[in-house]
Amino acid sequence: MALLELKNVKKTYNMGKEIQVEALKGISFSIEEGSYTSIMGHSGSGKSTLLQIMGCLDRATDGEIIINGTAVKKMNDFQLAHFRNKTIGFVFQSFNLIGNLSALENIELPMIYAGVPRAERRRRAMELLRAVGLEEPEERGYHRPNQLSGGQQQRVAVARSLANDPAVILADEPTGNLATNQWRRILDIFKKLNESGKTIIVVTHDPLVGNEATRIITLEDGRMIDDRIIAEKDDKMTDGKKVG
Description:
The chain is an alpha/beta fold. It has a single domain, classed as Rossmann fold, CATH 3.40.50.300. Helices cover 33% and strands 32% of the residues. The protein has helices spanning 47-54, 77-87, 103-113, 118-131, 137-140, 150-161, 180-195, 207-210; strands spanning 2-14, 20-32, 36-40, 62-67, 70-71, 88-92, 168-172, 199-204, 215-220, 223-233, 236-242. The strands form two sheets. A seven-stranded mixed beta sheet has the order 6-7-8-3-9-10-11, with helices on both faces. Strands 2-1-4-5 form a four-stranded antiparallel beta sheet, covered by helices on one side. It is globular, with a radius of gyration of 18 Å. Residues 233-244 have low confidence and may be disordered. InterPro entries: AAA+_ATPase, ABC_transporter-like_ATP-bd, ABC_transporter-like_CS, MacB-like_ATP-bd, P-loop_NTPase. Residues 4-244 form the ABC transporter domain. Belongs to the ABC transporter superfamily. This is ABC transporter ATP-binding protein.
């Protein structure tokens, strides 16, 4: 079942009275529920713009986006914000944690917007910290972001993305600010989440990160130039059949 569908999605930015920049030039594909997809491309390829549109953080200039059976184009801003909070979890390169809140409070924030009772928020936030493998969560859960390492902050960010049990996790260069041993652990978390049935979409320029997925979509100059399924054989990822 397709969880997310894009049909001829375009995005144009007006840079002046007579200057227009086409960031996306007719993107069409679908993402199946429970899949693990990477969207790759060099800087300026349109991949971050595409993530913002898939995540309902920005609107397409033209085309159709359907998420979980809902056409988001018809929603007003309030409806879109509510839908985004309940349906999509985000993980960003810069973590985007709120500095004056503890790790637990950062995880609870999406649940506050969703109307989850306080006791349930705290219970679930602690449960998520344990699930993402934060060391000593009973202690570090009360630390603020500046008291945590980069890897620990990203674990908190992943836990926050799961707060409302979203249908899909969108990760934008989630390992970009991490040392090798730290980003490997974050990718292991994504793999386990996907194995449990969660839909994962990772936007990255790094082949080492992108190749962790079972499908790779490549963008160049606002167009999709490649779409491949990756077959797993003998614990190694090798190119498989090309998607039509």
